[in-house]
Amino acid sequence: MQDLNRFSPLVILGCILIALGTLIPSDLLIDVIRNSVDGLRQKLLTGAMLFKVGLVTLGCYAVALNWIPSIQTGWESRPVSSRSSRIELVILALLVAVATLLRLYKLNFGIWLDEMLTYVNYMSMSVGDILSTYDDANNHLLFTVLARVSFWLFGESTWALRLPAVLFGIASIPALYFFARKVVSGREALFCAALFTLSYHHIWFSQNARGYTALLFWTLVSSTFFLEALRSNRPQQWIYYAITASMGAFVHLSMGFLVVAHICIYLVWVLRQRPNWHAETWNGILIGFMLTALLCFQIYALVLPQMIGGGLSSGAQGTVSEWTNPLWTLLEIVRGMRIGFSTGFVALAAFIVFGIGVIDYLRREPIVLGLLFIPTSLGFLVMISIGYTLFPRFFFFAIGFGVMVAIRGAIVTGDSISRLLRIPEEKIQWMGITACAGIVLVSSLSVPFVFGPKQNYDGALNLINEQRASGDSVVALGIAGFPFIEYFKKDWVRIESLQELEKVRASAERTWLVYMMPVHAAAAYPEIYASIEKDFETVQEFYGTLNGGTVVVCRTDSR
Questions:
Q1: CATH of residue 494
Q2: Does residue 9 lie within any of the structural domains?
Q3: 478: left (phi over 0), alpha (psi -120 to 50) or beta
Q4: Of 34, 65, 96, which closes a domain?
């Protein structure tokens, strides 16, 4: 009866969901959500039917959840107090303030291609249209909705487009602290937050109008509730976990890799309960993961027919074999470490310290390693098997766990050096503290370099505007046509074939040609790229903070 009283509101909620799913006509649901159907009516009707089925299923589940038993005990782990002192919270607040200033600085500067795609393709839509449209895997649904709300509140600008990413980036700093506080000391958790605050990559993604910082935030929050649920096994904690995990999936489907990691860790916990299995042991499956699955289905039900119909693969596969090469991805990760730690030597030292942290966590808190390596390895293997691009940013969601390993490695390294130097026991901790401070300081040295343009389109535009003469033609190769023609609204010609290029050249005194991402241009348009190298003169290359995103301006006289 105790559980019935506790969950009686779920019965009411379940009945409401069942009634809504049963009574609302599919046509009415579509008309309420969307301004227009634009040839998608049949898929939208199917999606609406799935949405209604999801409501009924959720309602039945909510009613059934009312009778699932609960217990108050969980797994046996090294007890670590999660209570933060006042001084810790003050320091954390100062870190958040510094992080806010760094992430707002030059926020309106240097937009790049993926941000432009979000701006052009979705910012003119209503929220309902966004929620019921999935024509591109690059559409991070929750972020896109929040960006649209930001436009509505603050007007159209680059900084408004990026604002949700900034807010999630800032929020991920205390989220990391509170997760780390579940398994490490307050001092160590603060160093993790400090490294986030002064991280080149964290600032870069916080100023990137995409959903990566939102995914990072929900990764940390859901993992925090997951730890709490394992330790208490209380239904409330599993429900909180399901809600936050599904919000991560609302941002990006790669959240599924983290949920798989959670399931693997949970199954290990279940096996450790033998021979004391009882009904409550399975709360994680019955409440946490099942509810997560139902909520994720509900979130994507409206667009599921569009996803299966091609939206899921659109924009995720390409013609550049290098971008699907695991070795290229690993080299890009190494290069990213060099940027974050200023020099190759320091990056090598950081890698060694990271390895030491892995060994220590393996001995003391292997769950952190599971959260780091299981989802990233699984994502790596899945994307290789289906030919998806392997950009390192797809694994950004796990960076918080990586930071924890790095800080732990610094502490262990410092302690080991102290013992080798026979430093008195009461002073040993200071060497570890110094090592952590050193990592944070070295990371901060790269921060000034993050504030350049992600891709320097303005430089290319200014050059052509200054030097273009009457009778000159300007062409944009392939994907370069989108930023210059769709976003900047230039009257240039977009070309996709050598014949199109030759036709423009034949009718112009001089021809300017702009392309970007040289690796992509060479792979996708080999004939045109060969012609560029043979017939065109490179006027200037414009670099940005996006690796490989160089914008190149070329010119040739008429034939």
A1: 3.40.190
A2: yes
A3: left
A4: 65
528 CB-near residues (< 8 Å, 6+ apart) = 477, 495, 497, 498, 501, 521
Task: Indicate whether 118 and 208 sit together in one domain.
Answer: yes
Task: Band the pLDDT of 335: cuts 50, 70, 90.
Answer: low
Q: Whole-angstrom distance between the N-terminal and C-terminal Cα of the chain?
A: 88
Asked whether residue 74 is domain-assigned, the answer is no
User: Maximum CA pair distance of the chain?
Assistant: 88
Instruction: Count the domains in the chain.
Output: 3
List beta partners, residue 513.
475, 554
For tokens 């609406």, the residue is: 48
Spatial CA neighbour of 328 closest among 389, 252, 408: 389
Q: Tell me which residue range forms the domain holding 401.
A: 86-451
Amino acid (1-letter code) at residue 202: H
Q: What pLDDT, in 10s, does the model give residues 382-407?
A: 888 777 777 778 889 999 999 999 99
Q: By CB neighbour count within 10 A (0-12 exposed, 13-18 middle, 19+ buried), where does 444 fall?
A: middle
Show the tokens assigned to 418: 């102290």
Are 501 and 422 in the same domain?
no
User: Which residues are bridge partners to 476 per DSSP?
Assistant: 494, 514
Contacts 24+ apart (CB under 8 A), 156-161: 156/123, 157/108, 158/107, 158/108, 158/109, 158/111, 158/115, 158/209, 159/107, 159/108, 161/111, 161/115, 161/118, 161/119, 161/123, 161/209
pTM of the model: 0.91
- Determine contact, residues 70/15, Cβ cutoff 8 Å: no
